[in-house]
Amino acid sequence: MYRxxxxxxxENEIELSEENSHHFSKVLRIKExxxxxxxxxxxxxxxxxxxxEGNNIILKKIRAVGLKNxxxxxxxxxxxxxxxxxxxxxxxxATEAGVSKIHPLKLKRTISNISGKEEKxxxxxxxxxxxxxxxxxxxxxxxxxxxxxxxxxxxxSGDMDIIxxxxxxxxxxxxxxxxxxxxxxxxxxxxxxxxxxxxxFLREIGANIITLGNRILRAETAAVCSSFSIIYxxxxx
Length: 237
What we know:
237 residues, alpha/beta, CATH 2.40.240.20, Alpha/beta knot, 5-stranded mixed β-sheet, 6 helices, transferase, PUA-like_sf, cytoplasm, S-adenosyl-L-methionine, rRNA processing
């Protein structure tokens, strides 16, 4: 069953955006009798074609289906900004794994310079996340915020348990953390990794520094491996 996201309330009918209408009729070529799902501001609903107004598709509500594809784990990803397509890949796969929100991080070893281009970058990253959410049938689209400095993480993390995979950490793994809540902040470094001063800051604010094993993972690989492992571990308790 195909799924569409609309940032509006679904009453008895809903008008799909121009982009979704085009996708509905020209790309997917959905039949008028076919049932689709719409994720709206007030829930998820099965719906069917009603009519066309101008270039836009109007759907009629059939029934509410409720949230069904989201984890009980609220995992916020603080991702060190990566160069080019690597950032797209990290955000795409982390969305598929189930992260709830994404904060791009400006770190000392960040290679990509996005000064003056932040607005366009965030718009691009949000599109990548939206596409991944649709493909993986998420119940909502995770938000990508404007880039942050590491120091801002202290206030944003609130009551979240902070987890930081670090290549120089020995011994402590995810499975050694026995008292984690379901509210997690995952911090992933950029291509060059973290500087020691950044790790020291994270320790000072109570972060759990862990190893992902003996092999060194690319930053974009670490994001999805860590996201999936944390969600699976906490869901399995």
